[in-house]
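Narrative of activities, Objective 1.

The group set out to show that a structural description can be obtained from nothing but a protein's sequence at a throughput compatible with the screening campaign. Below is one input-output pair from the validation batch, recorded exactly as produced.
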Amino acid sequence: MPELAELRLTADYINQYSKDVEGPSIKYCGIVKNTAHKGTHCITPENPKDYFSLSAQSRGKELIVYINENNKITPLRMSMGMSGHFELTNTGQESKHAHLKFYRSDGTTLSFVDVRRFGKWKAGETWSANRGPDPTTEVDDFKYNIYKHLDKRAFNRPIHEILMNQQYFNGIGNYLRAEILYRLPQVNPFMNAREVIENCPELIDLCTEIPRKAYALGGGQLKDWENPFKTDKEKIEKFIKCYHNPAMAWCKDKNGRRFWFDPKWYDSYLKMIENNLIKK
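Output recorded for this entry:
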């Protein structure tokens, strides 16, 4: 978290507050990195010497902020970590957790705010080579990438695990996988991923449909992330049927992430542990 829908909304927010419709005098004039963010992965671009503009684009779980200074464009690849988001404030009133600040000539600041400091960025980088196509904007490529590699060892793993593999399911994270699998009542989430995909192609379609719906409803405002447009949480809360629902069952996956699922599959989960097919 944030996942695909939340990254797309973040890009929308940056683009909305970077358009000239707000006034031709509103330009960006400086970039400052908070020294409290010590990560060696955080390489801030050289501070522009002139006014510049910003735009953004998301792809799965990644975001690229494009810094345009006199038609010289520097991409800034970002990931949001667990709670990262952007926020527009008056200059001098930025959050204490603002770790990358883009100052504007109108006396406001667009900041990357990250309480947990798990987010990261790097100048000059575009999309990561080890991430697959976006399931919502590159649908055909997304499907092709999965079926082309369906014989790989990764697909020997349970379907609930492969859905978190960003090489194939870029942008699908913890809450999206729970909602996708819950909406397929015939699919045992602990079964072999290859078998599930071959026998239930609807799963691939839901990997497009569910993130699109989450985006349309304002994103998964479930715990640490809030929609930057401050939209109502009620619609997305009604949409979430499985994730963090006390009526559901849960277990920890191989990466220690809590996976929520329909309780009817709990006996199957225990049996697979007993047979050493999955680890508890």
